Amino acid sequence: MSVKILDHALIKHKLSIMRDKNTSTYIFKQNLDEIAMLMAYEVSKDFPLKLKDIETPVCKTTGYEVDKQIVLVPILRAGIGLVDGFRTIMPNAKIGHIGMYRDEETLIPHEYYARFPSGLESSKVIIVDPMLATGGSAMDAIKAIKDRGAKDIMMVCLVGAPEGVKALQEAHPDVDITLAALDHHLNEKGYIVPGLGDAGDRLFGTD
Ligand code: URA
Questions:
Q1: Fewer CB within 10 A of the end CB, N or C, for the chain?
Q2: Which DSSP string corresponds to 101-138?
Q3: In angstroms, what is the span from residue 129 Cα to ligand 1's centroid?
Q4: Centroid of ligand 1 to alpha carbon of 151 (angstroms)
């Protein structure tokens, strides 16, 4: 449906800190948390609301309540890095998890872990993964979540490559994509250029 690249000074500032190869694991995670909060704020702008009777200390009036269960689904492992920031803004969100790998010979995707809250059919599902590179794991995760009944899905990534965005749009045109930045291309090793390296390694201090 749509691809939205957020245009926000703080996101650009914080993402530049994350891109710097000399940024420590601790500062990398801190900036990821802060960007995740800003992205959560942006993607939740048009969440459906219902009216709700409330009583202020002064009088009775009508307020609002988000009218849909929100389910956040990080794609393992790097997607976990976006969960804290989103949960700060959406504390009532339920969390699902999905881990996929592709058989290197057959290219058939396999789920090695999947656990979701009930009610996916009527929930707004936000899939999060820092890097949208080839789009392979995002496409597989979306299919796995649709197969379990989800109908209202959005994909939120920090950095996307044009190749991954195109592939995802073609495979799942009903899924809106939100990025903090759209980078130039994928290199021969599958890294986004300029990117930030391996998001999972930088987040968890592995190499
Ligand atoms: N996954 C990453 O973590 N980084 C990339 O650049 C591409 C895929």
A1: C
A2: EE-TTT--EEEEEEE--S-GGGSEEEEE-SEESSSHHH
A3: 10
A4: 27
Looking up residue 196, the CATH number of its domain turns out to be 3.40.50.2020
Cα 178 from chain centroid (whole Å): 8
Residue whose CA is at the smallest distance from ligand 1 atom 2? 198
Number of H helices, E strands in the chain: 6, 13
Asked, for residue 17, whether it belongs to a domain, the answer is yes
Q: Which domain holds residue 191?
A: 3-45+69-204
Cα 128 from Cα 82, distance rounded (Å): 7
Q: Global pTM?
A: 0.96
**Is the shortest distance between the CB of 192 and ligand 1 below 6 Å?**
yes
d(CA 157, CA 179): 5
> Which residues of the chain have a pLDDT value below 70?
107
Tell me the CA distances in angstroms from 136 to 87, 142, 163, 198, 203, one per residue in order: 26, 10, 10, 16, 21
